[in-house]
């Protein structure tokens, strides 16, 4: 058998990623050995810990990118994930024989998920309802497969060993996770025009005067046309006596006398109707 190497054959090139992973594992092992050998609170221990954190920051970025486009800035997720990395470094036991990245990933991801659970709600919801909502979501998926349909609140309550009211409260709490901005366009395609805030109703100040207007209407009908017009212009039109005088064609003094007489007449009729 000819064992001469084929000169035309391409030599095998080591996988760059595998080489990098191997180097990271070796560096991690050496740094943890330094960390354990150093005295508590020493500069050597602090330096080894800092290098471990810096070495595994790419792992944090990798985990954080899994949660992009969920309403939280990537930079914030990286910061939260770094907290998980710190916890993993401080809790890791080298003697377990587990690769550090395997141990740290669930801790980092768990910290990010906790951030979404605690801080990602548009309206602050008690932790009890947040956890109940997660349980309802998980049990709903299981029971939907078992029953071939969505479970009722009563069935969910029986499975979760809680009341129906608690199930309904947990389901409704999900509405607080994401709210609509009042600056959002009122309808698709309305960008730059009406917003949701523009379509919301406001309290009508005139509603408070509806009953008063209804009570005054029969009293105004008793006045002469000119006097009725003067009263309406003064108290409903907001005009001054001078403006009313110009509009009606009389003197301001005469407008004042007519207003006083009309109001006295209306007051007298109102007092008679309440006796």
From TrEMBL:
Region (Disordered): 1-22
Matches recorded under InterPro entries: RNA_pol_sigma-70_dom (IPR014284), RNA_pol_sigma-B/F/G (IPR014322), RNA_pol_sigma70 (IPR000943), RNA_pol_sigma70_r2 (IPR007627), RNA_pol_sigma70_r3 (IPR007624), RNA_pol_sigma70_r4 (IPR007630), RNA_pol_sigma_r2 (IPR013325), RNA_pol_sigma_r3/r4-like (IPR013324)
Pfam families (UniProt xref): Sigma70_r2, Sigma70_r3, Sigma70_r4
Signal peptide: none
Keyword annotations of the record: DNA-binding, Sigma factor, Transcription, Transcription regulation
Residues in RNA polymerase sigma-70 domain copies: 76-89
Protein name: RNA polymerase sigma-B factor
Protein species of origin: Nocardioides massiliensis
């Amino acid at each position: 058998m000819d064992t001469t190497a084929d000169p035309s054959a391409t030599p095998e090139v080591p996988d760059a990623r595998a080489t990098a992973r191997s180097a990271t594992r070796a560096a991690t092992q050496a740094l943890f050995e330094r960390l354990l050998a150093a005295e508590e609170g020493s500069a050597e221990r602090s330096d080894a810990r800092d290098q471990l954190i810096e070495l595994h920051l790419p792992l944090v970025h990798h985990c954080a990118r899994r949660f992009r486009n969920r309403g939280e800035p990537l930079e914030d997720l990286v910061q939260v994930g770094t907290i998980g990395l710190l916890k993993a470094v401080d809790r890791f036991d080298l003697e377990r024989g587990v690769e550090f990245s395997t141990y740290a990933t669930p801790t980092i991801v768990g910290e990010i998920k906790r951030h979404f659970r605690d801080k990602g709600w548009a309206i602050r919801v008690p932790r009890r309802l947040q956890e109940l909502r997660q349980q309802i979501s998980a049990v709903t998926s299981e029971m939907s497969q078992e029953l071939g349909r969505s479970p009722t609140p009563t069935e969910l309550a029986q499975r979760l060993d809680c009341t129906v009211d608690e199930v309904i409260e947990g389901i409704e709490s999900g509405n607080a996770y994401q709210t609509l901005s009042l600056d959002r366009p009122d309808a698709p395609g309305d960008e730059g025009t009406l917003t949701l805030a523009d379509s919301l109703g406001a309290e009508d100040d005139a509603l408070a005067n509806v009953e008063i207007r209804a009570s005054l209407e029969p009293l105004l009908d008793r006045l002469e046309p000119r006097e009725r017009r003067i009263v309406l212009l003064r108290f409903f039109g907001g005009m001054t006596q001078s403006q009313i005088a110009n509009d009606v064609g009389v003197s301001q003094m005469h407008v004042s006398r007519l207003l006083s007489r009309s109001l006295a007449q209306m007051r007298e009729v109102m007092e008679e109707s309440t006796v």
